[in-house]
Specification:
38% helix; 240 residues
Length: 240
């Protein structure tokens, strides 16, 4: 069920298309431009016959979403290969399984663009849009990318009800984007912790989760039940 009442109409599709074109064509960060291209040319052996995306990765999902999910950055052989957020790597396997289990995704797997996956009431974004060396964007690269997240926040209004930050760096960049979008930050400033919850505004709740990276999932720091729990809470808040 969608929010009803006197809210503004969803953003026109043309505005989403303009944002996607701007992201895909972006060359603001020379280090990231060089790295994403080098990875796409060299490829990984198991993907040597595939065409790599090798460009900035736009957001993915439902343009009328009440849930916004913000990750860190595309994986070199995941989204940098497939061109879709959290697609083609182990982190995505965990994320989409949790979204399917909680009613946000039409299927539990995300292999490639055009595989039939659709998101319902969810939009997936990232703090940085290019695959970085060592999976570590520099502060200046986060800054250069921030306005894309700010524009997504604007386009998702007024439906937005929940933001899930996957990891501490994602949280820091969500808060900076929220402030850059003209919204006051809550006091005290939200701190990261798995399943931590805070109000960004009267209508929008912030949730945190450990990132579903292998560093967290292989060690047991993050379990499937823990990740599903965050999205079950997000579903209750978004649809309540």
């Amino acid at each position: 069920m969608r929010p009803s009442g006197g809210g503004a109409a969803p953003a026109p599709e043309a505005e989403w298309a303009r944002l996607e074109r701007a992201i895909v064509r972006c060359r603001r960060c020379p280090r990231l431009v060089a790295h994403r291209g080098a990875v796409a040319r060299a490829k990984r052996r198991q993907y040597r016959d595939e065409h790599y995306w090798g460009r900035p990765v736009p957001g993915f999902g439902d343009h009328r979403a009440r849930l916004l999910i913000v990750g860190l950055a595309p994986a070199a052989h995941g989204a940098n290969r497939t061109g879709r957020m959290f697609t083609g790597d182990r982190s995505g396997d965990w994320l989409y399984a949790a979204l399917h289990a909680t009613g946000f995704a039409s299927q539990p797997t995300s292999l490639r663009r055009g595989d039939g996956l659709a998101l319902r009431d969810a939009w997936i974004s990232a703090a940085a849009r290019c695959a970085p060396p060592d999976n570590a964007p520099l502060p200046a690269e986060f800054d250069a990318c921030r306005d894309y997240l700010v524009r997504e926040l604007a386009l998702l209004q007024p439906a937005l009800r929940v933001v899930v930050a996957l990891g501490g760096l994602a949280l820091a960049n969500v808060l900076r984007a929220w402030s850059a979008a003209g919204h006051p930050l809550p006091r005290p400033r939200p701190r990261f912790g798995h399943a931590a919850e805070a109000r960004l505004s009267e209508r929008v709740t912030l949730l945190c989760s450990y990132h579903p990276s292998q560093q967290n999932t292989f060690t047991g720091r993050l379990t499937r039940a823990m990740l599903e729990g965050v999205f079950a809470r997000a579903a209750a808040l978004a649809r309540g």
